[in-house]
Specification:
Length: about 150
C-alpha cells in the first residue's frame, strides 16, 4: 500500500469516526443546547481541571484573556460558573463550575465515556493499548508543531 493509499484510508476512517461522533453529539444537545462552541469547551476544561485560573482557560482554549473574560461573563450570567478570588492574592481569579453545570458536565461525560467504551469494544485490550499509544504519539507531534 502506498503512502497516498494509507492517507486515503486513514481519512476515510476519520470521516467515519467523525460521523459517529456527530451522531453522538446530537444526542448530547439536550445537555448543552444553549451554549456556543467556546462556552462548551470552557465548561469541559473547567470540569476536567477543577478550579481554573482565567489565564489557564485562555491558554487551553487558545483565546486572549479579554476574550475569556467575556466568555466567563456569559457563563456567569447563565449561572454555569462562579468566579472566586484568591484570599492570598486578590489579583488571582479562579473559575469553578456551578452545581448545575457540574451535574450537566458529569451527565454528559458519562454518556461520552459510554460512547467511547462502546467504540473501543471493537478492539482487544492489547489493540486498545496500541491505539492509545499511537494517539498519544500523534497528539504530541501536533502539539510540538503548534508551538513552532
Amino acid at each position: 500500500m502506498t503512502v497516498e493509499d494509507k492517507l486515503r484510508e486513514i481519512t476515510k476512517c476519520f470521516h467515519a469516526m467523525r460521523g459517529a461522533a456527530k451522531r453522538h453529539d446530537k444526542k448530547q444537545e439536550r445537555f448543552f443546547h444553549s451554549f456556543n462552541h467556546q462556552e462548551l469547551h470552557a465548561i469541559v476544561y473547567i470540569g476536567d481541571s477543577g478550579a481554573s485560573r482565567m489565564s489557564d482557560i485562555a491558554d487551553n482554549l487558545q483565546l486572549s484573556l479579554s476574550s475569556i473574560t467575556g466568555l466567563v461573563d456569559k457563563l456567569v450570567a447563565k449561572k454555569m460558573v462562579r468566579r472566586i478570588r484568591s484570599t492570598e492574592d486578590r489579583r488571582i481569579v479562579q473559575v469553578v463550575l456551578s452545581d448545575e453545570a457540574t451535574k450537566l458536565y458529569k451527565d454528559a461525560m458519562s454518556q461520552h465515556m459510554d460512547f467511547v467504551r462502546d467504540s473501543l469494544n471493537a478492539l482487544t485490550p492489547h489493540e486498545q493499548d496500541q491505539l492509545l499509544s499511537l494517539f498519544k504519539k500523534i497528539a504530541t507531534s501536533m502539539k510540538d508543531r503548534r508551538r513552532d
